[in-house]
Amino acid sequence: MNMMQPGRTTDTWAASLSEFGRFSEQEPMARHTTLGTGGPARWFFRPAGRSALVRAMQSIPSHIRILPLGRGSNMLIPDSGFDGLVMDLSDLNEMRIDGCQAHAEAGVRMSSIARQCAERGLTGLEFMATVPGDLGGGIAMNAGAFSQQVSDTLQQVELLLRNGDVVEMPASGLQMGYRHTSLPEGSLVLAARFELAPDMPDAIRERMRSMRSRRSSTQPLSQPNCGSVFKNPPGDHAARLIEASGLKGTRIGDAQISERHANFIVNLGGASSADVLALIERARIVVKKKSGILLEPEVRIIAEHPVEESA
Ligand SMILES: Cc1cc2nc3c(=O)[nH]c(=O)nc-3n(C[C@H](O)[C@H](O)[C@H](O)COP(=O)(O)OP(=O)(O)OC[C@H]3O[C@@H](n4cnc5c(N)ncnc54)[C@H](O)[C@@H]3O)c2cc1C
Q1: In the chain, which end has fewer C-beta atoms inside a 10 angstrom radius, N or C?
Q2: How confident is the model at residue 8 (pLDDT cuts 50, 70, 90)?
Q3: pLDDT tens, position by position, 35-77
Q4: Mean pLDDT, the chain, whole residue set
């Protein structure tokens, strides 16, 4: 469906995006983040697939700021919105398995990758069953859990550069660390290839079941949240430090440090991104004062305008 109302946009390049997928203006980002907060994206584009995206990129002027979006499960967008183009890549959703290699496009849900690999008796990506994002977001974040992470088995990524070129890059060419990947400036992950190892499907499924059940018993999964808010500092856990600082249950507006897991902030219903940010800041200040450790956000805090973003 073409969501653009003819004549609303004065930018010809933006108007042309509706030829390649769904396009809208002033799209409320609260609908696209798992926290349920965030103001409007000036332009919002969901390309119909990989080739539509590659063709569309040619028409986007180089000064336009692009924010790639997966499932918005690790993103905090300001209440004032995003003054640029949000690219929702969820229709890049093809996947195939050849032997021990899994190939998937950026918009495939990580839980679906985990399930399909288990069915084919391939181990290495079980943790993906517990992470609610898409592959592109998982690569950008080097997602991980239960002693596995994307970089362990990632072989190659296909990238769309800001100048419209498509390049393949070996994983060894990306600097991947704890919840961080250095992608070339302005590039989008189109697809990736993983090299996995064979195992019994039932054993893999059992590991996934056990991971999911550990998650649901410790995390506030029934309330809107964005996963771990802070990275764990070396040798310690952000949740332990926040709890030891007496902050569990602390509330600003409708944002609350979860009673269940102190490294989660939950939206009690009407939280704004400003409430969440204020709570993040309070936790950093109090933890620093009590333990001397300055927590670093894991959640991507997006700026409305092009300024320094915390990543
Ligand atoms: C309940 C819950 C549990 C979670 N558990 C875990 C966990 O165990 N381990 C873990 O690592 N994370 C966890 N997370 C956080 C989150 O799910 C991961 O970081 C995930 O990888 C984000 O994927 P996404 O598609 O939602 O990305 P988004 O939130 O949409 O984007 C995250 C970042 O990636 C960039 N990005 C997205 N797609 C692309 C692309 N195609 N190309 C380039 N950049 C892109 C975005 O611009 C943004 O900077 C959890 C979150 C929730 C809500």
Answers
A1: N
A2: low
A3: 999 999 999 999 999 999 999 999 999 999 999 999 999 999 9
A4: 94
CA 171 to chain centre: 19
Tell me the three state secondary structure of residue 155: strand
- Distance (Å, whole) CA 247 – CA 284: 11
Say how many Å lie between the CA of residue 236 and the centre of ligand 1.
22
For residue 219, which atom of ligand 1 is closest to its CA? 1
89 CB within 6 A, ligand 1 = yes
In Å, what is the CA distance from 42 to each residue of 32, 65, 96?
A: 14, 10, 35
Q: What is the residue with the minimal CA distance to atom 28 of ligand 1?
A: 72
For residue 188 and ligand 1, the question of a CB distance below 6 A is answered with yes
Protein residue whose Cα sits closest to atom 8 of ligand 1: 145
Q: Report the separation in Å between the CA atom of 72 and the middle of ligand 1, taken as the mean of its atom positions.
A: 7
- Give the residue among 255, 249, 261 at the shortest CA–CA distance from 217: 261
List, by residue number, the catalytic residues.
179, 228, 298
Spatial distance between the Cα atoms of 137 and 185, rounded to a whole number of angstroms: 15
- In this structure, which amino acid lies at residue 8? R
Domains of the chain: 12-88 (3.30.43.10), 95-217 (3.30.465.10), 220-301 (3.90.78.10)
User: Which atom, in ligand 1's list, is nearest to the CA of 75?
Assistant: 29
Nearest CA to ligand 1 atom 41: 136
Distance of CA 289 to the CA centre of its chain: 30
Q: What does each C-alpha distance from 309 to 18, 75, 299, 306 come to in angstroms?
A: 29, 12, 11, 8
Copy the structure tokens of residue 274: 């400003």
Cα of first residue to Cα of last residue in the chain, in angstroms, is 33
Residue reference for tokens 């600003």: 252
Secondary structure letter of residue 90 according to DSSP: T
